[in-house]
Amino acid sequence: MSQNNNLWVQYPGNDGAGNGKHIVLVSGDEEYRSEEALPMLGQILSAHHGFRTTVLFAIDPDTGKIDPEVQTNIPGLQHLESADMMILFTRFRELPDDQMKFIVDYTNSGKPIMGLRTATHAFKYERNLESPYAKYDCQSVDFDGGYGRQVLGETWINHHGHHGKESALGVINGLYEDHPILKGVADVWAPSDVYGVKKLVGDNLQILMNGQVLVGMQSSDRPKINKSTMPLVWLKNYTGETGNTCRVFNTTMGASVDLCSEGLRRLLVNGCYWCLNMEDQIPERSNVDYINDYKPTMFGFGTFQRDLCPSDFAL
Question: Which of 5, 176, 220, 307 gets the most CB atoms within 10 Å of its CB?
């Protein structure tokens, strides 16, 4: 039975390798429906793998409803104080300092982080440039590339493919084809396009998968041969301001419709095991079956379900 206080939703850990571990999933983007993707992923991690999961949302403080266009409010970030792992899927957030402090303190704790899609440009400061956290802006000069480049490996560059018209195929890097995260992973495809990558930053950097632009929006479409591939899934270490070093998994896939790909869901679940130093417990073929019916909204600005509440994701 899931729990919520109408501002976030929690799924208790069932039997499984992850029992006793707590993963906090932070949503909040205007385009790719992270508010649909992360509850589904949280349910899978809980029901099939034993992790206790907490899913947070961008909430309109006046209505209590999920509104990804509200860039300044994600209630429940205090759950990061008890988290063993954070999954971040936000875009251009400018949170009040008392909320942002939980993310930054967690980031500096040495505990692992997974970034999805727009997490490369998770934060953008325009209202409070004097904030001690303004340096995490995705266009930061002093802290080159902000949170995205420094913590996750890259910031926002561009759409490498034609957005909304050219999809993306994940191509495994043969140098790491035996990496435990890739166990049982195949046919990774996403309607969202390939992001441009200019300068990956990080210690122990490993590019597990590259993104190939396809000429259309079907997985069967042919590769666009005049387009180079771009790093799509990578691992790195990040050492924060307190000297603690954490494992980081990042992918520029992750839209709610992307997660219809069984291969992508398995990649993310396996990535959670790796982040938590549990790679020796990754199953040969991780169970990533949906817990509830999953009918995600196609990405696009203004397409979010306007009457959605965290309680709608309770089991």
Answer: 176
At residue 82, φ and ψ (nearest 5 deg) are -110, 10
- When divided into structural domains, the chain yields a total of 1
Closest CA to 56 of 89, 31, 85: 89
199, exposed or middle or buried, with CB in 10 Å at 0-12, 13-18, 19+? exposed
Residue 222 maps to a domain: no
Please indicate, yes or no, if residue 279 is contained in any of the structural domains: yes
Q: Which residue range is the domain that position 98 belongs to?
A: 3-159+234-306
For residue 233, give the DSSP letter.
E
- CA pair distance 148, 123, nearest whole angstrom: 8
The Cβ of residue 74 has, within 10 Å, a number of other Cβ atoms equal to 24
Q: Is 110 exposed, middle or buried (0-12, 13-18, 19+ CB in 10 A)?
A: middle
Q: How far is CA 130 from CA 96, 105, 134, in A?
A: 12, 19, 7
In a domain, 268, yes or no: yes
CA pair distance 259, 70, nearest whole angstrom: 24
- Give tens-digit pLDDT for 17-65: 999 999 999 999 999 999 999 999 999 999 999 999 999 999 999 999 9
Which regions in the chain score pLDDT beneath 50? 1
The reply to whether 184 falls in a domain is no
Q: What is the DSSP letter of 185?
A: -
DSSP H helices, the chain, are 34-49, 97-107, 146-147, 262-275
